[in-house]
Design goal:
78 residues, 2 strands
């Protein structure tokens, strides 16, 4: 299957469904275009690195939230 990301066409294949891969490619395209709009002087590869860093920061934040110990309120739960 082929997808377009930031104006370039890429051939993708993998164990995920075509629908899922298209959704991922679409999300990546939206995020990359947003980085390019905020930083129009960047080359595509520079924008891709910034985009990847933003995504990794979101992933790291999610991991921190999931592994954060829950505070005890002193109340017992049934």
């Amino acid at each position: 299957m082929r997808v377009r990301i930031a104006g370039s066409t890429y051939a993708l294949r993998g164990p995920a469904s075509e629908e899922h891969l298209r959704a991922l490619a679409g999300e990546l395209d939206r995020r990359l275009q947003a980085v390019i709009r905020r930083n129009p002087r960047l080359a595509l590869h520079q924008a891709a690195v910034l985009c990847a860093l933003e995504i990794l920061e979101e992933l790291e934040e999610q991991r921190r939230k999931e592994h954060r110990p829950r505070r005890r309120t002193g109340r017992s739960t049934p």
